[in-house]
Amino acid sequence: MFAYYLQLGLRSLRKNPLLTLLMVLAIGCGVAASMTTYSVFRATSNNPIPQKSSQLFVPQIDNWGPDASQDNKGEPPNAMTYTDAINLMRDKRATRQTALFPAAVSIVPADPQMLPFRETSYAWYADAFAMFDIPFLYGHGWTADEDASHAAVAVIGKKLNEKLFNGANSVGRNINLNGRDYRIIGVANTWNPEPVFYDVINTNGFDDPIEVFMPFTRAVELQTTTNGNNNCSKDPGKGWDAWIGSECVWLGFWAELPSKEKADAYRQYLNGYAAEQQRSGRFRWAPNTRLRNVTEWLEYQKVVPQEAKVSLLVSLGFLLICLVNTVGLLLAKFMKRSSEIGVRRALGAPRKEIYLQFLIEAAAIGLAGGVVGLILTGLGVMGISLVFEPDIAKLATLDVSLVLLTMLLAVLSTVLAAFYPTWRAAQVQPAWQLKSN
User: Fold this and answer.
1) Are 424 and 355 in contact (CB under 8 A)?
2) Is residue 53 a contact partner of residue 293, using CB atoms and an 8 Å limit?
3) Chain-centre distance of CA 110, in angstroms?
4) Phi/psi at 183 (nearest 5 deg)?
5) What angle do CA 27, 30, 36 make, to 5 degrees?
6) CB neighbours (10 Å) of residue 298?
7) What is the pLDDT of residues 120-163, one digit of tens each?
8) What angle do helix axes 351-382 and 419-426 make, rounded to 10 degrees?
9) What is the DSSP string of 239-305?
10) CA-to-CA distance for 358 and 341, rounded, in angstroms?
11) What does the alpha-carbon distance between residue 243 and residue 234 come to, in Å, rounded to a whole number?
């Protein structure tokens, strides 16, 4: 019966091509608008490291005092001073931990025909590779001993390895960073969490993958400047030593705490550390600290753009309007066939058969609308950069899951829209239709 009703539905659609076209376009446009904006919302609100998002935490310490925190609604600074980062690293209260910053590094190729260039580069500690589950093509990350010895080692990314070494195993070879040679000990596979949770402050959550990883201790020893934000509550003075010893905040910090008990203990440690700084005279205010995991940190930093939320709501409203129009068109189409329904009912067809026939016909319309919506969604994703920033727009992709969701939404929404017209059609009285015809 399903095949028979589908055949009847397709035949009915061909009888009224203009009406059918209007319904297909209404469904297609509504679904395309929703799926295009959803593709952006999905990418920006994605959990970038779901297997560990509840175990990775950002500690915050208020080193500026209530006057500055009042402007920030009582919250501590988003970044950390060098003094606090080094003290936390020294105390080793987390299972794994790292301070980090985007390093201003120039890559000098061995090929004299290539000019020096820059790639996204970060300085951090050895723990970061295991903390962030960074995959490797060749080799491995450096060790804690190499952190301690300020070793001239580096890990490079897959893209940079292809650019410099044609994708070959480059472990053991050298790379020149800012005029100094570093021994490559690992080549990381593509690692591009979206949003960029590990450094929201400097990237707003969206950036290119890291291509150069270098030891934090080595970068500081060579006075490698940050390529990110540097916020100071007062003039830090002149020179490198004055800057890193100041109250300027410029470092990110992450701690891995695999259980609630460890997280609670670390919160107590942060408060104790701030109280110790107060007793030493560095802080003149009560401890003010925070500890947020990945999802809490992304929400606090408002990584999902407001325009993505608004656009999604507007597009869903547009889809609703399209469905309301589809309800009217289906009602007109179905009620026009009252005589056909009356004859079928007089010959013994129960109401459930009328329901089944017209819902299958609506599903066919939805399927056609889904194909149109899929084409328009593809065009919408290609042109999304006209609405959103390029770093955000490039995250919107038409993958298999979005294709399936588009088709499912088109069919399901059309079938739901057809319930009222189908109910009205099923209420047709056979006797009245037979008398009038």
Assistant:
1) no
2) yes
3) 37
4) -85, 125
5) 130
6) 23
7) 999 999 999 999 999 999 999 999 999 999 999 999 999 999 99
8) 160
9) SHHHHHTSS-B-BEEEEE--SHHHHHHHHHHHHHHHHHHHHTTS--S---EEEEEHHHHHHHTT-S-
10) 11
11) 11
Contacts of 66 (CB under 8 A, 6+ apart): 285, 288
Q: Map tokens 């194909």 to a residue.
A: 371
Separation CA 298–CA 304 (nearest Å): 8
Q: CA dihedral in degrees (301, 392, 319, 23; nearest 10)?
A: -170
Structure tokens at 6: 């589908």
Higher per-residue pLDDT: 401 or 75: 75
Residue linked to tokens 């753009």: 305
**For the residues 49-62, what does the mean pLDDT come to?**
95
DSSP secondary structure of 139-194:
E----HHHHHTT--EEEEEHHHHHHHHTTS--TT-EEEETTEEEEEEEEEPP---S
For residue 31, CA distances in Å to 34, 39, 420 come to: 5, 12, 20
Which residues, 6+ apart, have CB-to-CB distance to 103 below 8 Å? 121, 122, 123, 212, 214, 219, 224, 225, 226, 227
Q: Which two tokens stand for residue 131?
A: 């903390």
Phi, psi of 121 (to 5 degrees): -130, 140
Angle between helices 306-335 and 351-382 (to 10 degrees): 140
The three-class DSSP label of residue 372 is helix
Query: What tokens does 405 get?
Result: 């969701």
Continuous segment of H or E residues that includes residue 121: strand 121-124
Give the whole-angstrom CA distance, residue 211 versus residue 160. Answer: 6
DSSP letters, 307-322, are HHHHHHHHHHHHHHHH
- For residues 337 and 44, the answer to whether their CB atoms sit within 8 Å is no
Answer yes or no: are the C-beta atoms of 102 and 226 closer than 8 Å. yes
CB within 8 A of 388, min separation 6: which ones?
40, 305, 307, 308, 396
Contacts of 383 (CB under 8 A, 6+ apart): none
Token digits of residue 28: 């297609």
Amino acid letter, residue 165: F
Closest CA to 264 of 94, 44, 67: 94
The 10s digit of each residue's pLDDT in 261-272 is: 999 999 999 999
